Amino acid sequence: MWMRLVRFLRPRKVRLILISLLLVCLLHYLVPRQEHFYNELFRRLYYFPIFLGGFWYGLRGGLGMGLLVVLLYLPQVFMAWGEGQAMFYSRLMEVCLFTLAGPVVGLLSDREKRQRIRNQELETLAALGEAAASVAHEMKNIVIPIRGFLRRIREAEALDGKASEYLDIAERESARLENMTKDMLAFARQAPLQREEVHMRSFLEELRVSLQIPFKEKRVRLICACEPREMSVPIDRERIRHALVNLLQNALHASTEGKEVRLTAAMDGDSVKIAVEDQGKGIPREDLDRIFLPFFSTKPKGTGLGLAITQAIVREHGGDISVESAVERGTRVLLDLPITRSQSPVNDSEHVGGKL
Ligand SMILES: Nc1ncnc2c1ncn2[C@@H]1O[C@H](COP(=O)(O)OP(=O)(O)OP(=O)(O)O)[C@@H](O)[C@H]1O
Ligand SMILES: [Mg+2]
Known about the structure:
Blueprint (H helix, E strand, L loop, with lengths): L1 H8 L2 H19 L5 H10 L1 H33 L5 H72 L4 H28 L7 E4 H11 L1 H6 L3 E7 L4 E4 L1 H18 L5 E9 L2 E8 L6 H4 L17 H11 L3 E7 L3 E9 L18
């Protein structure tokens, strides 16, 4: 109990608030009642600790200080009973204002704090995006000629087994590097959306066919479904494709042999809901808050940009992305994309994700 009190009083700001409250309270109670001017003045001074509480400690601080002031001030209300009805009601009114002032300042301060944190996050992400873009650009300039030379060596030389194997590795790794740079550039990109009417069922089918080989190699079934069967939605085909490939790759990576991955699209009022579900290893609760952070990855060869890019693409479309997951049971990622046909569907220039 004492320890908690000591801990509570440790911050300088808490002590400052309580000392100022004590001072105001003392002055208010010590000044003779007939000194109207000083009475009124000290009564107003109670707002000082209330505002400080709300300003520094948000809603809780404001509410706490408001109630504490009311508690200390209540005897004054009862004492005013003998001084006539007008005085009594005026003090009662002050009690209401004390109770209200703290939460109002607290709420405003909380809002301002949240906004400040969000702005800082956006600034950090924008700086990160710019850094990623310039590094990726340089890397791309290096890796593309390397891949070209590797191809030429393969074509020009009759290579023996070992050399050919080494060349395979070099080509595979440089292809990975090239993909990584593409991801990083996509992450930092600021181009406007190129919306077009996309026939969902054929779009999902094309996607399924393009990912057939890696899924077959791992013996994981990829199932696509679309409801209603004939629906077209105005989306940026290439970017949504990029987003879904990221999700399907994650799903495949998390799945073991014999499992299923489902890619479904369904119309739901004014939006289309696209889900990628797997029966894989799931995401631990402590990771769930971090998976959308750029460069967060639990994979030895992951860049951690897949979900960050996917989230940026979905937000560019004015949509939402959410994840449900249970360890050892599977993961479901849901994209909720609003259908904005009424507002110039083709080639609009909205860009929510920004430089991210
Ligand atoms: N379907 C999933 N099942 C299990 N874990 C997942 C799934 N999707 C994402 N994760 C977790 O979220 C992390 C971040 O995913 P993200 O796609 O952003 O990066 P990555 O897959 O690690 O790398 P890359 O940039 O190559 O995609 C993953 O490392 C993984 O731990
Ligand atoms: Mg990924």
